Structure formats: C-alpha cells, structure tokens
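Quick one: Alanine dehydrogenase from Polaribacter irgensii 23-P, structure tokens please.
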Amino acid sequence: MKIGIPKEIKNNESRVGMIPAGVFELTKKNHGVFVQTTAGEGSGFFDKDYIDVGAVILPTIAEVYAKSDMIIKVKEPIALEYPLVRENQIIFTYFHFASSESLTKAMIASKSICIAYEMVEDEEGTLPLLTPMSEVAGRMAIQQGAKYLEKPIKGRGILLGGVPGVAPGKVLVLGAGVVGVQAAKMAAGLGAHVTIMDISMKRLRYVNDVLPNHVVTAFSNEYAIRQHIKTHDLIIGGVLVKGGKAPKLITRDMLNEMRPGTVLVDVAVDQGGCFETTRPTTHEDPTYIIDDIVHYCVANMPGAVPHTSTLALTNVTLPFILKLANNGWEKACEIDLCLSKGLSIVKGKVCYEEINEAFNL
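--- reply ---
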C-alpha cells in the first residue's frame, strides 16, 4: 500500500502523523511511504530521518494526497484539504465529526474511508487512540490554567500551590475520565485543592482509591456544579460523549456566579465544548474573556508539546496502521473489531447515529 504523511496545516499544529520508527516498520514490509517535506520538523524529526528509513519526500501536500492510498494525519482535514481527499482513499486521523458540519459534509461528498482515531474502541470500552492525547491534554489543562490565573493575563492572581500561611488555589474538574484524572493528578501535584465531579460512582470510587486525599470527589449535577463554581479558581471541562457533542455543563448565566478572573479550560472543545460560552481558539490566540471569566479553549492542546505528543500517538496508532496497510481496510476491520468501530464515514455513508443527530442529516 502507498501511505502518505502530509504536513499538518491547522493553526500552530506541529505534530506529525508518524515518526521515522513507524515509517521503518512500513517500508520493511515493502509499503511505500510518502512524507511531505518538513512535515516532522515541528516534532523534532527531519526529512533525512525519514529518507534514512525508506520514505520518499514530496514537496507539496497535493502530491502526498494524490499518490497515497491511505493518509495518516493527526488532526482532521481542514477546508484547504477537502478537495484533495479522493474516493476510496483511507483517511486515518482524529476527526471529531460532531463538532464540524462542514467537515462531515465534505467527507461524505468525498466518498472516502474515514477512520477516526477517537472512535476506535477496545474490548473494555476504552478508546486506546484517544487516551494518550487525553493524558497530554489533561495534564496541559492544569499547566495552562495555572498560567492564565496570573493577574497580567486577567486571571485572579492565584498561585495554585499557595505558600506557607496562604491557602492553595482550588481546582474543579468536571469529568473523571482520562482527562479528568490526569488533570486532577497534576493539580494535586502542584499542591492545589482539587474537586473532581462525575455522574459515575464507579469512576469516583476509582479516583478516591488512586489519587491523594486532598483530591475530593463529588457527584455531578447542576445544583452541585452551581455551588462549586462559586468558590473554585480554575475549572477544567473534561467530559466526553463518544462520537457525540459534549453536554453543556456550565451555561452562560453561571458565569455571573463565578469570581472575576476565574479560568475555564475546556478540553472538550473538539466535541463542541462542555461550556455554553466555549468557542474554539488557537495557540496563537488562546484565550478570550466573557463577563470577567477567562476562557482557554484551544482545540489542539497537545500540539503545543509536539515531540511528546507525536511519540505518544505513534506508539498506539502504529499497530492499527500496519493492519490497514497489510490487509486493506475491509479485511483489517473484519479481523479487528476494535478498529472497525473507528469507521465513521464510509463511501458517503455515515456509520454513527450521533453524527447524524448532530447535524440532522
């Protein structure tokens, strides 16, 4: 099979779909790999590194798409790429269709094979290709939130860990999934007081067992959320609905109940966001303020740490990429039911009702 690795062109996205070690595994099985020039530089991998393991370097993104049976990416195609996607071409990447009607309709029209990283599901019901980026994003949410709590950036002027004689900052984490647990872990490590909320008692018991005693759990409902937002300095939205839009856990009117300078970090922005006032931002212009509340809603948070993120992503995607390359998408999905759950749009047909519901298709 001919596999293409284009350069990511989304704003400030420096990750790359595959590292040279992954390319080596493909070329030694006689697959052809086309890499767009400088595609890996943002992650610390250079054209020579790819050439040394058998890849062919191409000068333009159009050539990579034109020559490839399967495209390996990190982020969803953006408008400039829509015309490059061909019928029957496999696109294996993060899609997050429920957050973009234009992307969904473009991929339907292309009649390509769209396999979404975030939809691949293992036997235990976990999402193995989403997990590493959720881990990165959860940890980064605290790192970024701590920065934007600083007064020069219009935050409350709070040091999360506090100092002797001064109470630490308070962090509220909505969702006890991968993002939430990683965020709580990082916040606890800084010495903050952490509350993590979820509607699953099973997840809350897990958090209670594995995290320090100064991470407290609370059952999530609207009343409880309204009470907690009044006293917390940093609020992390980490709720995931597989394949669908995230629920709006914090509404516009709730902003008036928060203290000025409170920081909201919406890690669910790729799925539409779990705050009503969420709108996607970029690393170039990451925040905005509504009613004196700082919003950080960068849609590709792990892109800020591309070396770490690219290595973590290739670790989990490569086994599936090899199956697709060795067997073709139909046979690969027959022999691996986990991979088959990633099939989102196939030859113009939408495979998930959540996507249809999101846009009344």
